[in-house]
Design brief:
The complex is a heterotrimer. Chain A has three helices and no strands. By secondary structure, chain A is mainly alpha-helical. Chain C starts with a helix and ends with a helix. The relative contact order of chain C is 0.15. By secondary structure, chain C is an all-alpha fold. The chains are: A mainly alpha, B mainly alpha, C mainly alpha.
Chain lengths: ~70, ~250, ~220
């Protein structure tokens, strides 16, 4: 282990702000990117499911019934 | 040999690539975490202090991998794009679009960590160093690629237009780099230089390599996640996507 | 082959002459942008002399951008482009003709105007000559590289802004060597090296750019 104390480790020889600022932003963005991808995927899957349900519903119902249900 | 080729083409169809990617993603995440923990503990806990730069040099374990990946991803993106253009494979275009945001992210991180490194070392957040400037231009190229694809509604056309742009970019990157370097040597005295990397301790090198591997695995994992989303979006009218999504409830 | 090239150039020039207002507007844009800089940074001749090459070159890039969206848009709208794509001559050759015509209409006037604007910046006469020469050599590259962007953004929404986003980063080497040539001549280094590199870029730009441009046009026409 290179460090004598945890305080030394945090201080990074007076460059703590720069070192931890780099690490923090890098970690944040590398967590944020997959989170955003996952969220985008979830909304897409929900939208597609709704769309498929609507399509199969329309196919099985008669035209007039579909017209009445237009509001949802 | 021929068997391998057939398998390869089999996985080039979105329908069979989708589940394969889904199976691979957790492995790449695990590898990314493993390499990341190893690289960061070597870099931040074990590696000795740099004689010239003190502890601030530890940003190198973040900065260099981010820069490498930003350049490497552009090449990979252009490779997929070119493949898609030449052989008209749907998957290639999707891979290229899936890689672009991650590449842009690393280009940005490279600039960010570069700025935070430059401030204590050179006393300035930004210097018009040839490498920094080229990295900035690389970010512009990524943004142009993403913006072009976002502006075109038809995915096939977006793929092809993006592919042409990516290939033109690849041809131009060396020209841009050398022109910026020329410009830089002409305009700037020998006040600052990023190239002063004297004999690097083996431990530092290992830390850097492991961090770069971690970033690489991360990029693959995220790109695969994104390509799966792109596949669902683009293939939403096909039977396999419909079956996949309606059966999973 | 040459006859087809000449025909394309002649046709584009005739069309451009019919809408001279566009050409004149781009020229005035160039003049105005260049004239704004002394108002922004102050009238000290020393400072202006140092800024002049960069300012004139950046303004030239922007003025070129202004006319690029029209390069293929009109032909696309009236269906001429589809006919040209079906013609027996390679599409790249036709693009080359259009690039040359674009340079004659949009690049050459900049070259003619530049020395006059350079005087505003108190450039010495040999630097004026190098500036004009560098623009003369460099602007064909701008037309060539710009054609790729124009073809890629053809018929795309928000095309104009997108075009500058795509093309301006690719213009950087031309800017560096163009403005660098004038700088080098002012500082007594001699502009030959810059000018020959600029010439290489221009040759590359004019003769290689038509092929990706043609590919991009075919994608747009699909």
């Amino acid at each position: 282990m290179h460090w004598n104390s945890f305080g030394d480790f945090l201080a990074m020889g007076n460059h703590g702000l720069y070192v931890w600022g780099s690490l923090l932003v890098m970690a944040l963005l590398m967590v944020a990117e997959p989170t955003l991808v996952l969220r985008g995927r979830r909304t897409l899957v929900e939208r597609l499911r709704r769309q498929y349900r609507a399509e199969s519903g329309e196919a099985s119902r008669s035209r007039s019934a579909a017209g009445r249900r237009r509001n949802d | 040999m021929s068997n391998g080729l057939i398998n390869w083409f089999k996985y080039a169809s979105p329908q069979s690539f989708y589940p394969l990617a889904g199976k691979l993603i957790p492995w790449f995440w695990a590898l990314a975490a493993l390499f990341g923990v190893a690289g960061l503990s070597i870099g931040f806990l074990l590696a000795p202090t740099d004689a010239q730069q003190g502890e601030g040099y530890r940003i190198i374990f973040l900065h260099v991998p981010a820069s490498w990946l930003s350049m490497f991803i552009y090449l990979v993106m252009a490779f997929w794009a070119g493949l898609g253009l030449a052989f008209n494979i749907r998957l290639s275009g999707m891979m290229a679009s899936a890689l672009a945001p991650t590449g842009a992210l690393f280009a940005f991180l490279s600039l960010w960590t570069g700025a935070l490194w430059g401030k204590p070392m050179w006393g300035a957040w930004w210097v018009w160093d040839a490498r920094l400037t080229s990295e900035l231009i690389l970010l512009f190229l990524y943004i142009g690629f993403i913006a072009l694809q976002a502006a075109i509604d038809d995915p096939r056309r977006a793929d092809k237009a993006g592919a042409i742009l990516a290939l033109v970019g690849v041809v131009n990157i060396p020209i841009i780099y050398f022109s910026v370097k020329w410009w830089n040597t002409l305009h700037q005295g020998a006040s600052v230089s990023l190239t002063k990397a004297p004999s690097m301790a083996a431990m530092m090198l290992w830390g850097m390599l492991l961090c770069a591997l971690a970033c690489w695995m991360y990029s693959i994992a995220v790109a695969l996640m994104r390509v799966r989303t792109i596949m669902l979006e683009r293939e939403r009218h096909t039977d396999w996507v419909r079956a996949l999504l309606t059966n999973q409830e | 082959m040459l006859r087809a090239l000449r025909a394309v150039i002649g046709r584009d020039l005739r069309l451009a002459m019919r809408r001279q207002a566009d050409i004149v507007a781009a020229m005035f844009f160039f003049i105005i942008v260049v004239s704004l800089f002394p108002l922004g940074v102050g009238p000290e001749p020393d400072q202006l002399r140092r800024l002049a090459p960069g300012v004139l070159w950046v303004a030239a890039l922007l003025a070129t951008m202004l006319s690029l969206p029209r390069l293929f848009a009109d032909d696309h709208r009236d269906g001429t482009l589809e006919q040209l794509a079906l013609a027996p001559q390679p599409l790249g050759l036709i693009v080359l003709g259009k690039v040359i015509a674009h340079w004659l209409v949009a690049g050459l006037p900049l070259v003619v105007l530049a020395p006059v604007l350079g005087i505003q910046f108190d450039l010495p006469s040999d630097a004026l000559a190098v500036l004009t020469l560098s623009l003369l050599i460099g602007t064909p590259a701008l037309s060539g590289i710009g054609a790729i962007g124009a073809a890629l953004t053809l018929g795309v929404r928000g095309g104009g802004v997108l075009l500058s986003l795509l093309v301006l980063p690719l213009y950087i080497p031309v800017l560096i060597f163009g403005a660098g040539a004038v700088d080098a001549s002012v500082s007594g280094l001699g502009p030959q090296a810059h000018l020959s590199l600029l010439g290489a870029l221009a040759l590359g730009g004019v003769f290689f750019a038509p092929w990706p441009t043609a590919a991009a046009l075919r994608v747009a026409l699909e």
